[in-house]
Amino acid sequence: MRAVRNVLANWAAFVLGTAITFVLSPFIVHHLGDTRFGLWGLIGSVVGYLGLLDLGIRVAVTRFVAFHEAKGDRQALARVVSTAMGLFTAGAGLATLLGGLLAFVLPGAMHIPPEYAREAAIAFAIGGVTVGVALIGGVYGGVIAGLQRLTLLNAIDLGGELVRAASVFIVLRSGGNLVDLALIQLGVVALRTVMYRVAAWRLQPWLKVSRDSFDRATLREIFRFSTYTMILHVSAIFIFSSDAVVIAAIMPVAQVTFFVIAGNLTQAVFRVLGGVSQALYPLVSARQAVQGTLATAGILQASMRLGALAILPIVITLLVRGPTFIGLWMGPSYAEVSGQILRVLCLGLCLFTSYYVLTQMAIGLNLHKGMAPAYVGEAVANVGLSILLGLKWGVIGVAWGTTIPRLILSLGVGPWLARRWLQVHVQDYVMHAWLRPLASMIPFALASAVVDASWPALNLMVFFAQIGLVLPLAGVGAWVLGLERSERALIVAALQRALRLVPAPARDSA
């Protein structure tokens, strides 16, 4: 039940976070302009590489906190947290230094107009400090996640996003620039770090970070786990952050804007999947500690299917109606190019849920060493194809450079690893991961296409009303084809309990 609450809390945070992004993005683009907004996307991508200094340690903290908490071993838990803090403190100093180096080198190495070079350099430097502060906060965030208190974690994150959105609105209305945005980001991350620390202390008042608890044996244990987590993390950063860098290296930086608009929409899908994965880490670690690895096979099949059912309405809407939405949201000048990019990216996401869920479970089960070659291969193929196809077809080619490797891995590597690790038969994998979820969404997809072709949306209010009209078809399809009988029974029971909590209307005694 706690796992279900955690997933629901993650998705609630996703809805509110997406609403903030939806409202704020057009405002930022139109106040910064295409060139500055493209620069902001480039800065975010390049500074994101400093996140490599995480070394997979935050995930290790989450995994080991859940594992030791399930066993009731407080001393081991304290050693993990103190050792991770020592590592991240060193990483924070290095991130700050590297941010300064990026500020010195990159403005001259990219297609950045001279009039924006100094502004971009300062923003790069501030970004390095921001990453350093985030690393320190990541230890406490990992503790909260490991204790499966994701509702609290999401509340803190969402509060930070609200502060960031309000600050960005006020600053840009006053004529702010990239430096101001970077300072806002730093302030929000610092505030979030403080809140993580307070929350972790309230959950585990006995937990203290000290030099005495820094332990070399624990350090080796963390690195044994995090070495391959780091490889996955490095590869993922290249996969998700390389596109903007490739575009800025071979095209005018303003082209980054078209890609970032589409990419930000696909990030909504990953936030939904993140709601599943954050709950999976501690859940499967605790199950493994008590019942063994093979006992988690059922969790994998259910998570793949339910995760796909959660994201497919979003993916299908973006795939079928993405250009229409972008035209209404950002303006007609962005609809064609960003809409084409969005469709290419969503094509890969239709089958990606199973592979993503499998990766997150592998990390929670400490089996992720086997995924390292696939992740590295995807990163190399992504960068290589993005450059090759980008030179030939522009930003659309860069999108294909991301999608083609993603499709290959989803179709080939995922089923093989699930059978090897958890003895999940290929036919069961295909049925839970793809056939049932996709089949359940066919009526919704057809209705969305008909509506888009025959009923032009004149504004966003009409667009969302149209989605509301056809969305029940996705729910009916999921209920009939996507859910197991036991899952339907759980939903009915939950609704009955909720209805019993609602007082019946008072009757007139007369």
Class by helix and strand content? mainly alpha
Task: Supply the number of helical segments.
Answer: 17
Q: β content, as a range? A: under 5%
How confident overall, as mean pLDDT?
83
Low-confidence stretches: none
N-end to C-end Cα span: 44 Å
Q: Give the ordered list of helices and strands.
A: HHHHHHHHHHHHHHHHH
Describe the structure.
By secondary structure, this protein is mainly α. It has two domains: 1-214, no CATH class; 228-483, no CATH class. Helices cover 85% and strands 0% of the residues. The protein has 17 helices and no strands. Helix 1 crosses helix 7 and helix 9 (297-329) packs across helix 11 (352-364). It is globular and about 60 Å long. The two termini are 44 Å apart. The mean pLDDT is 83.
Offer a concise description of the structure:
The chain is mostly helical and 510 residues long. The chain has helices at 2-48, 57-71, 74-109, 117-146, 150-173, 178-203, 216-250, 255-291, 297-329, 332-349, 352-364, 372-393, 395-422, 426-440, 442-454, 460-482, 485-501. Helix 15 runs antiparallel to helix 16 (460-482).
What attributes does this structure have?
single chain; 510 residues; mainly alpha; 17 helices; globular; 85% helix
Secondary-structure map:
Blueprint (H helix, E strand, L loop, with lengths): L1 H47 L8 H15 L2 H36 L7 H30 L3 H24 L4 H26 L12 H35 L4 H37 L5 H33 L2 H18 L2 H13 L7 H22 L1 H28 L3 H15 L1 H13 L5 H23 L2 H17 L9
